[in-house]
Amino acid sequence: MAVLAALSFGGTAAQAQTLEGALSRAYQGNPTLNAQRAQVRATDEQVPQALSGYRPTISATVDAGFQRDRTKGTQSGSILDPTAPGGLGQVGAKYNLIENSYPRGAGVTVEQNVFNGFQTKNSVRRSESNILGARETLRNSEQNILFDAAQAYMDVLRDYAILDVRKNNVQVLEEELRAARERFQVGEVTRTDTAQAEAALQGARSEVSAAESQLNTSRATYRQVVGEDIARPRAAKSIDRLLPKSLAQAIGLSQAQHPAILAALHGVDAANLDIRVVEGNLLPSLNLQASFQRRYDPGSSINRTTSGSIVGQLTIPIYEGGTVYSQARQAKETAGQRRLEADVSRDQVRQAVVSAWGQVEATTAQIKSAQAQIEASQTALNGVREEAKVGQRTTLDVLNAQQDLLNARQSLITAQRDRVVATYALLSSVGWLTAERLGLQVARYDPNVHYDQVRDKWIGLRTPDGR
User: Which chain positions lie within coiled-coil regions (predicted)?
Assistant: First the structure.
């Protein structure tokens, strides 16, 4: 990193930023990562939802109303009537009776499941597998964000270095043009030589503009990933000490601990438990129900009634139209899909390890070649300049040699950047690109904290953070 180190310290120390600081800020403030953490917290709620199957359900009912009863009729009676047979006559009196009442009552019902075909037990285990899978997905997201931050930082560092090299090239070509014009005035070179020098200078200035544009693009990408603007970056420290010692070791570690693979395996566990949950619908279920009720229904003889009951209910499913059987078959196919996805994850991780390992080796060789190329190009440029002074070389030869040196320097800068990015890619493919292993000075996010806060929570609308 000698070239990048020398070029990157061109800015003031107060404005310089480090790769470790960029990774720490991305770990804390990246919105994609924070959204994934919120997703894990939402998944945590699956366990208390599943545990509710062990708990009773309580409901209360209250009713009140107004009732009016209206009765119309005729009341018959007997009177003395000498003309009627037996000396008695019948008469009828009409009446209209209205009675108002206010019936009301209240009751409480408690229902407790005793057995439901092990559905609650398997639902809890499924939810726990989903949570473990969500945590591994979060860990994989953390790796991806840290890698994106490292790549964005190195892009900015590379572009600053390339910009400095191209600006320096403009200064060199300005001196070449000045020298060519002086030699043209004394007749040592032709107007063609000065035109060639001027064309090379204008091309170099165009390359400076392109380098500035690329730098602005990289800085915008850095802000998107890290969440803040970047000043002049410092050279990155090597993380070679954290890398596996061999390709075989890297592959073995990745297959055993990469979060993408572990998340897929937890998905397999959850899918298998989902089969048991569905099949539990075919088993008998036993519920206990206790109720207490008091009513106030005014009548001719009863003003208040109080009742209570405890009932056990055993339900044995016989045939439900085939829905449960279809759901069980569907769950089994889903479990098979999850197992295949786990195999895909293993293959993808292995490919990423091999690719990153090869990239590290290739960029290491490129750095050595670029360093040798710079030395050779510098020697060639010095020789061409000396030969041009005695008329054995033309201005074009000098310009070509200068361009070769510029290309070699840019190749070294790019190779150094690529190697640093490749080491972070290798660390990520193994599953080691974490804040702990990198030693970042940042508060670690612990998903267990929220899980412990909500797991056994029976009641409450507010989240642990007060929302």
Answer: 163-214, 360-387
